[in-house]
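Support request from a user on the community tier.

User writes: "When I paste my structure tokens into the form, the page sometimes reloads and wipes my input. The last time it worked, I copied everything first. Here is what I submitted, just in case something in the input itself triggers the reload:"
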């Protein structure tokens, strides 16, 4: 793609993430699966991109490529101007399950990130307290994971992923295990955190409403092997009150369009 070529020749990071003609094949003795057909995607610094697609189409695989946990069979992935060749530690990752250490308090779970990276303890502590405040966890710093609700546990996971101030945050179905109301609250909070931190976010989600509410762009993938079916530009005001956003005509149009696209690729509906 010409924009990718331009970022390389200029030697500057015009894309936070550049996925260039990537394909992924998994081969074992028993099976051979092409998870990603051929995908290209540029994500601008500070952008929020949602990725939706049928179950098993290759969404988690795509995030693993960006984090360097997996190598593409062909094509390349560039993160912050540098080709991804192995696990990248300058990102944040939030999964469907919070995966907290049961014997550590909320704050100590967040600080795990600092310990693993050998960050300055005083600075990490200050940053942890800011994030605790920002995500509404104040008062629960010393609670153990089993004393927290599912939503609060995900907030702890989000704080942990943001502690080292990553410029790129990858999220794989982070709110999939939450009830609908908690999920909406988390969406509002994530939107606010994103605006306050300026982090580039790639979010994989099964919720069409969530994908539109949060993103600047929604990438709709096809059935496996995944290719980009369509890219939807989300035209919503930056200030996103939840109910007011749901009521907007642009929101209804975008979600209906994505539902049609997913219905077409899955053959349901
Ligand atoms: N390590 C692996 N070895 C072999 N096959 C794999 C591996 N990881 C993923 N796959 C296959 O690749 C395809 C895509 O998997 P992936 O987990 O990326 O899908 P997904 O879109 O995240 O699905 P879901 O929405 O259910 O989470 C699946 O068919 C899966 O079986
Ligand atoms: Mg997945």
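"...and here is what came back when it finally went through:"
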């Amino acid at each position: 793609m010409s924009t990718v070529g331009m970022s390389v020749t200029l030697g500057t990071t015009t894309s936070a993430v550049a996925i260039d003609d990537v394909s992924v094949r998994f081969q074992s003795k028993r099976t051979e699966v092409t998870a990603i057909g051929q995908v290209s995607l540029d994500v601008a610094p500070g952008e929020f991109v949602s990725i939706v697609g049928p179950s098993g189409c290759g969404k988690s695989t795509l995030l693993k490529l960006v984090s360097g946990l997996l190598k593409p069979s062909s094509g390349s992935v560039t993160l912050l101007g540098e080709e991804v060749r192995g696990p990248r530690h300058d990102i944040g990752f939030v999964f469907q399950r919070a995966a907290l250490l049961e014997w550590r308090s909320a704050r100590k779970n967040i600080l795990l990130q600092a310990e693993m990276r050998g960050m300055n303890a005083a600075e990490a502590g200050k940053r942890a307290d800011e994030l605790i405040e920002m995500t509404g966890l104040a008062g629960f710093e010393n609670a153990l994971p089993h004393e927290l609700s599912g939503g609060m546990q995900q907030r702890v996971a989000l704080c942990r992923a943001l502690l080292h101030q990553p410029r790129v945050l990858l999220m794989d179905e982070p709110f999939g295990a939450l009830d609908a109301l908690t999920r909406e609250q988390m969406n509002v909070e994530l939107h606010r955190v994103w605006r306050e931190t300026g982090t580039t976010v790639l979010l994989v989600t099964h919720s069409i409403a969530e994908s539109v509410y949060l993103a600047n762009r929604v990438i709709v993938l096809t059935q496996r092997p995944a290719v980009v079916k369509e890219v939807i530009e989300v035209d919503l005001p930056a200030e996103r009150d939840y109910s007011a956003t749901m009521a907007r005509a642009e929101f209804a149009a975008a979600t209906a369009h994505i539902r049609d696209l997913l219905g077409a690729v899955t053959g349901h509906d």
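Agent notes: The reload is a front-end session timeout and is unrelated to the input. The first helix runs from residue 2 to 10. Confidence is low (pLDDT under 50) at residues 1-11. Escalated to web team.
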